[in-house]
Structures are given as C-alpha cells and as structure tokens.
Amino acid sequence: MSDQATPSYSQWTALLAMTRAGFKAIFANPIAIVFSVIFPIVFVLIFSAFGSGNSPTYKIALLSGSDTTSAFYRAISQHPSIKLIRFTDSVQLQQELIKGKLTGSLLLTASLATDSSDSPLRVQFFSTTASGPTIRPFLDLLDYIRLRQLASSLPTGLVSIDRPVIRSVRKYLPIDFVLPGQLGFSILFSTLFGIAFTFYGLREQGVLKRFFATPIHRINILIGIGISRISFQLLSVMVLLLFGHWVLDFTLQNGWLSIVQIVSFTILMLLLLMGVGLIFSSIAKTDATIPLLINLFALPQMLLSGTFFSVEVFPLWLQRFCEIMPLKQFNDAVRKISFEGLGWLDCGKEFGILLLWMVLIYVLLSKLLRWE
In terms of domains, do 66 and 161 share one? Predict the structure, then answer.
C-alpha cells in the first residue's frame, strides 16, 4: 500500500473556531449583556445625579509666604469649617483647583508698617469656576471672621480682603468621577465571573479533555477564550465612554486619543483580571466556590479603589493601603487621561503597579492552572 499524505492541521483555523465559540457562549447568556452594559449605565445615571454635596468644611490651600503670625490667621485656622492645607507642589495644587477639590487658595500678606496694631493684613483669594458653589459661602465666612475681629475689643489689626481672583476652567462634573469607576466596576465583575465560570465549565464537562485529543495547542484554547472576552469587554467600554460623553457630557480632553489611551489601559486591566479568573477556576472545588472567591477579591477593590466615592474620605493609613489596589490604579489612570488630558507617560505609577500585579498573578497562575 502506498503511504497516504497526512493532512495538515491549521492552528489558525482552530484559534478562530475557539474565538467564535467564545463569542457564542457570551451572547447565549443575556446576563453578560446586563452586567456589562445595561447595569453600569443604570449606575452611571444614578450616581451622576448626585452632586458633591454641601460639605461643612472648606478646604483651603495656604500659599507659601503667607503671614502665620496674625490674629486673623489664627482665627481662620481654628475655625471648624475651614481646613487649611499646604502644598509643596504647585502643579498638584493647580490640579486640585481645576478638579474643584479645593475651595481655593489664600495668600495672607503682612504690612510693613511699624505699628502692628494698625497695620492692615492683605488677604488674597484664588480659585476656579470648578469650585463655584463653595466660593461665595467661604468668602462670606471670611468677611464674618473679619467683622467679628473688628468688633472685638482685642487689638487684632485691620484686615483687607481683596476682590477674589476666579479662573475659568471646565467644571469637574460628577460624571467625570463616576464613569471611570463604573468602567472599572463593569470589567472587574464581568471578566472575573465570565472567565472563571467558562474555564471551570470547560474543564468539569470534559471539553478540555476532548480538546487534548486534537492537535490544537493548549495556549490557543486560552487565547481564543481571552480574545472573545476582551473583545466583548472593550465593546462595552466603548459603549459606556461614548454614552457618557454624548449624553452626560463626560470629559474627553483629547477626544479619540483619550479613548485610545483608555482602551489600552483597559486591555492591560483585562489581562490582569483574566489571570485572576483562571486562578479561581483552578482552585475552586465546586462552582459554588467561585462566587465566594471572586467576592473576596473584588469587593475590597470596589470599596477601596475610588469606584463610587473618593478614597480621601478614609484615614491616611487606609488611603496608603488603597494605593496597592489594581482597580484603584486603573480608575486613577482613566481619570487622568479623560479629564486632565494626560497620556501614558504621565501614568507611569499606575502602569507600573498594574504590571507588577500582572507578573505576580501570572507567575502564580503557572503554578496553579488545572486543565483536568
């Protein structure tokens, strides 16, 4: 008998088949669409309806060179509604003002007159339109403190409050904080649940074992599932970004360039979360264990990563702990890119921490991944 030629096996065809199967699995489950697109949009609409609230505390940056020996300074520094903050980095100060996180900045200039009891203290106030709702109440409070000192019998000296200098900037809307958090929330849970349950189901149902009887490489199985999951999540991210920009006036400082940079960070975050999902699917003994493992990982991320509210409400030690959260770095990077107009090079810290997490996760995955 003559030898028959062995038919060649196309790895590319196998990869495309795995990718198509992944897409079919996603769209066969309507819950995936609800959690990835509809559910985050509902959250965006709800949380964007809330403003920053009427905080009883005015955060004021005290500029360098201010006179801290006057009675007026002591009065405002001791007032319970005024929190004085000092900045060593002028760039950071300007960024906080642009975002409306500060009511404004003060410069207290002492007079050179010899008679300190009659020498006026010049008070200059600087702010931006982003802090609009808090500017007038704070200026009224400053004037009240000045008049109260003037009416007292103590020799406090004269205080002259200049006309405030308000710089016009784009207003930092609630949606500019909310939408990046919702992007992170969406990809966090949908990717973890999608990857963990998909790979666990393929293994427990013997599908992976049947794949081993074919010439397909194992890595192509993971790549096929990963491409379908990443593609679907990127589609949902695009929908949320465009919906927020066109409907809710979400800021994209550099237009499509900002979208491209946000998508690139999203891919990095998705690869990280895919590794976590594969680890959970490998160590879970039953499918009921997977949600528990996911919640143990995801809930701290959701609460401590600036998803729904700023981590600045936490004590300083907890804020430092929040910095190690990968979702915190993703949220911060998206906000820097979208509102501040920064690029990849300006997000080096966020990229570095995410990359470190990815290396640790995939090293751990190489030890724990189970195919059977």
Answer: yes
Closest CA to 327 of 356, 346, 302, 309: 302
SS3 content of the chain, % helix, strand, coil (to 5): 65, 10, 30
Asked, for residue 189, whether it belongs to a domain, the answer is yes
Q: Retrieve residue 176's tokens.
A: 């500019």
Question: Residues 86, 95: contact at Cβ < 8 Å?
Answer: no
d(CA 284, CA 154): 72
pLDDT greater than 50 at residue 271: yes
> Within this chain, do residues 124 and 180 fall inside the same structural domain, yes or no?
no
Do both 101 and 147 map to the same domain?
A: yes
Residue 80 φ/ψ, nearest 5 degrees: -65, -20
* Distance, CA of 192 to CA of 176 (rounded, Å): 25
Q: What is the pLDDT of residues 88-113, one digit of tens each?
A: 888 888 888 887 788 999 999 876 65
Distance, first Cα to last Cα, the chain:
40
The Cα angle at residue 166 between residues 163 and 169, in degrees rounded to 5: 175
What token pair was written down for 300?
Answer: 């701290």
Band (44; pLDDT cuts 50, 70, 90)? low
Tokens of 76: 């405002």
Query: Could you tell me which of 74, 166, 71, 66 has the C-alpha nearest to residue 123?
Result: 66
SS (H, E, C) 183-229: HHHHHHHHHHHHHHHHHHHHHHCCHHHHHCCCCCCHHHHHHHHHHHH
Q: Which of 269, 279, 280, 338 is nearest to 305 (CA)?
A: 269
Residues 157 and 191 in one domain: no
List 104's β-bridge partners, or say none: 60
| φ, ψ at 4 (rounded to 5°) | -90, 140
**Residues 149 and 187 sit within 8 Å (Cβ to Cβ):** no
Question: What is the mean pLDDT of the segment spanning 249-257?
Answer: 90
| Same domain membership, residue 351 and residue 230 | yes
Which one of 134, 167, 200 terminates a domain? 167
CATH number (domain holding residue 96): 3.40.190
- Element housing 161 (H / E): strand 159-161
